From TrEMBL:
Pfam families: Cytochrom_C. This is Cytochrome c domain-containing protein. InterPro entries: Cyt_c-like_dom (IPR009056), Cyt_c-like_dom_sf (IPR036909), Cytochrome_c-type_DH (IPR051459). Keywords: Heme, Iron, Metal-binding. It comes from the Bacteria. Residues 66-154 form the Cytochrome c domain. It comes from Emticicia aquatica.
Amino acid sequence: MKNKIQTLKLEIRDTKYDEFENSIFFKLLQYLYRLLKIVFSKTFILLLLSATLTSCQSEEKIKLEQYYIGGKEIYEQNCANCHQKDGKGLQNLYPPIAGSDFLKNKDKVIWLIKNGSKDTISVNGKTFSQPMPANIHLQNLDIAEVVTYIYNEWKVDNKITEVSEVEKVLNKN
Ligand code: HEC
């Protein structure tokens, strides 16, 4: 008799468990568990990370290209008359930009482009004393673009010169 009650109890427990196992709630839990396992798996995290990285990288690349193209146009309209399209300058009158050691100091270059220069300057050991006119009409973004163009085209660096860098130099006075 006691044994029979025992088995009956067990049977009831089993059916209850079966009911639970078949319930939507349990299926949902299982589903959630599988989803969490995927979300926290290493490969998934790596995949997500690399996707964000590549999208950031290509955004930077597109911005650099935009600055370069804009800067090239500004250079050809405002600078190439004197410094020449190929950046080699003109004899003793206009200093070269391509290969110029003056470009080492970017702050000075930004300042000079906006305000011009009446000094005598030295470029690669050669002195130049013609005045360079100021470019008051160029906005900070224009200057950032033209500097980005010059530095990339003549391989001083291969990054964007940000508008904030131009602002910093020109607000100094
Ligand atoms: C009218 C001619 C003329 C124009 C236009 C001109 N420059 Fe110059 N640039 C000069 C001269 C002359 C100097 C040397 C200035 C000095 O001796 O003080 C110079 C110096 C420079 C220098 C520093 C020296 C070097 O060669 O590395 C840079 C950089 C420069 N110019 C960039 C530009 C850019 C960018 C533009 C256009 C936005 C521009 N210039 C427009 C005549 C010009």
